Amino acid sequence: MMKLLRLKNLFARFHRQRTRNHGGFGLMEMVVVTAIFGISMTVIVMILTNSLRFQRQVRAEQQVVSAARDALEVLAREIRLGEIDYQAFLDAGEDLDVIQVDSAPGPLDHVYITASSGDSLLFELVDQQLVSGTQPLSSTDINITNLRFYIDPTSDPYHLESCVDDSNCDPQSIPVKDTDPGLGIAGSCTAAGICEIENVQTRVTIILRAETRDAGPSRFASVDLQTTVSVRNYSR
Question: Does 132 have pLDDT greater than 50?
Answer without folding.
Answer: yes
